[in-house]
Amino acid sequence: MSENSKRWINWDMLKDLSDDQIEEEAKRILSIMTLEEKLDQMSGDWTLNLGGPKMQKRYNAEPIPAGEDKILGIPGVLFSDGPRGVVIGNSTCFPVSMARGASWDLDLEEKIGEVIGIEAKAHGANYFGGVCINLLRHPAWGRAQETYGEDTYHLGAFGVALLTGVQKHIMACAKHYACNSIENTRFEVNVSIDERTLREVYLPHFKKCVDAGVASIMNAYNKVNGEYCGHNPHLLRDILKKDWNFQGFVITDFAWGIRNGAIAINAGVDIEMPFEWRMAPAKMIDYLNEGRFTEELIDKAVLRILRQKLKFAHKGDPKIYNKEKIACKEHTELALEAARKSIVLLKNENSFLPLDRNDLKQIAIFGELANTPNIGDYGSSRVYPPYVITPLEGINNIVGNRTNIVFNEGKDLKEAKKLAKNSDVSIIVAGYTHLDEGEGSGTKERTGDRISLRLHEKDEEMISAIASVNQNCIVALEGGGPIIVGPWKNEVSAILMLWYPGMEGGTALGEILFGDINPSAKLPAVFPKSEDQLPYFDATAKEIEYGYYHGYKLMDKEGHDPTFPFGFGLSYTTFSYDNLRIDKNTINSEGEIRVSIDVSNIGNMIGEEIVQMYVGYKNPSVDRPVKDLKGFTKVLLTPGESSTINLSLKAEDLAYYDNDKNKWVIEKIEYIIYVGSSSRNEDLLTTTFNIS
Ligand code: BGC
């Protein structure tokens, strides 16, 4: 028996291991590895110049491998991007994350995670890199569509839901850690941020994913307080690995996530993706010989990698990971359910919607986007579904043959107006595409981030022209984040936010327009009146300061009135909120309070309501937000039905981070609880309690 065959690890036997056994086995494997073998675990398998063998075909055609050891029999990690589905092959394309954030539906998100896990594994991947939870500081960020919204509590809940679903099958990676919210200068911008803002605003959602057992974290490209995230020991070692006790491994964002392997490993990076480059074994051996780090650091990194490989090696039932599952009916139906639950009804004057299909002779549909499969950007998150139902197809499929549908791109406004005038209803689809926002969009000089938060001039003109001749005008918007709608909002009867609604988005739109589905989604980010209601944003910035406030908290703080508030969305029915109560008036700093409220459907249609709980702080010793989201849930109610909603609030979730003492402090003050249907004061009932 050769030396190597004695060292061969029979991975198939390493099933059903307890955490202790995993730990033991990982250490045993580490002890038989040579230095070179260990270093091979720590970088991607692609070669620097050629990329992957399948790169010629298209990016992400195949899983991206790292750290396979054929001699020892250690499998590699096989990475697949997301989050709108699996990027390999022709997979199910869900609405983008921002849309799913608008569903406020964590069970749905977990199911989406499961489908993603199953399809990724059926494609041969074992590692999903699509748990993107960067905070939407400003809607111009081009990758807004890849995350869930602007609020850390809501983001954390969604990140956990997705990774919990995915990790029933394969490893998940949460990204981009941290403060990544400008695309154009992402490789160089330095974000200056004080410790309290970092810990309270930009990181808690990552911590939630760590607490939920995420296998891996991807460091962002940008710098935080002067250091690239992949060179940043404060982010990676002090906070992630020490304070949060993260047991998984850190990968770099691809190619430019680190600049120097010695600095990166010292800072806490475990795998360089997707090439052997800055952490190439030969280079790392030189650094080691120069005394830039010790072999102990390598051992620690490899142990983290082995631990997760062992933990996930045999997850799930192998029988279910077959190609028939990819974009199967069950999965595309989930994409449809997600689209139904993600479309936000923003305006519905005099209950104009839903439309009555028996009452309309002709509907005119306008806008190129009505006839365009528009499911999101063309960057690393691009999914290639087998089909996409456009808005035009979705509406066509749902109206009866008594109604005539006419379509016009809206380029010739004279022609469009004529059509609109002769139609009972006009539906305009407008917004953005992969050319306006998203990874790789724009020009070489300025990529990714949106240039304006308003619609293109031609779209605004089209809306005004059509609305001037047809009062029954509906606008359906597509885009990855908030849009300024003020210039034309009052001219139309109804507005719907579709986001990028995935492969079944058109179907969901049709169903909502005609009342087969009652819309229930609510905004995960505020729709401002103008850009001056938002924090400073500069897509060309090499230096930027991130302050404590953005989104609804900034609006509250500065007394701005947005067009549509955070948490806002209309329904075809009406919900009432009564009898807000708590089980205790005072708790101590380890305590928890139970909050209850009765919600009733007092309208005529079955509908789902998203119940939100915010907390305010009375006379705090430090500056604190007027309102802070601390809980939410959904309830489905038939007309006339009531339900008691219970939410809970822990004292520890109300702490602030004390910059001077470097610790979390729970203040002994009075707290205000707000519960209701949106973040707007008029929509909330209040009560108070104390922590003593
Ligand atoms: C993106 C990541 C992505 C990676 C791999 C990078 O450019 O920022 O989100 O996971 O590429 O495709």
Brief rundown of the structure:
This protein has 692 residues and is α/β, with parallel strands linked by helices. The chain has 19 helices and 26 strands. The chain has three domains: 208 residues, Glycoside hydrolase, family 3, N-terminal domain (TIM Barrel); 201 residues, 3-Layer(aba) Sandwich (Rossmann fold); 117 residues, Immunoglobulins (Immunoglobulin-like, Sandwich).
Question: What would CATH call the homologous superfamily of the largest domain?
Answer: Glycoside hydrolase, family 3, N-terminal domain
How is the main sheet built? 6 strands, mixed
Shape from CA axes? globular
What is the correct CATH architecture of the largest domain?
Alpha-Beta Barrel
Helix content: 25-40%
CATH topology of the largest domain: TIM Barrel
What's the CATH class label of the largest domain? Answer: Alpha Beta
* SSE class: alpha/beta
Present as ligands are: beta-D-glucopyranose
Alpha plus pi helix count: 19
Total number of domains: 3
The value of Rg in angstroms is 26 Å
Strand order of the largest sheet: 1-2-3-4-6-9
**Distance between the first and last residues' Cα:** 70 Å
Mean pLDDT: 96
Report the sheet-strand fraction: 15-25%
Number of strands: 26
Low-confidence stretches: none
Describe the structure.
With 692 residues, the chain is α/β, with parallel strands linked by helices. It has three domains: 1-11 and 19-75 and 172-311, Alpha-Beta Barrel (TIM Barrel); 340-540, Glycoside hydrolase family 3 C-terminal domain (Rossmann fold), CATH 3.40.50.1700; 575-691, Immunoglobulin-like (Sandwich). Strand 25 (670-676) and strand 26 (684-691) form a beta hairpin. Helix 6 (152-166) runs parallel beside helix 8. It is globular and about 85 Å long. The protein starts with a helix and ends with a strand. The model has no long low-confidence stretch (mean pLDDT 96). Bound molecules: beta-D-glucopyranose. Beta-D-glucopyranose (BGC) binds next to loops.
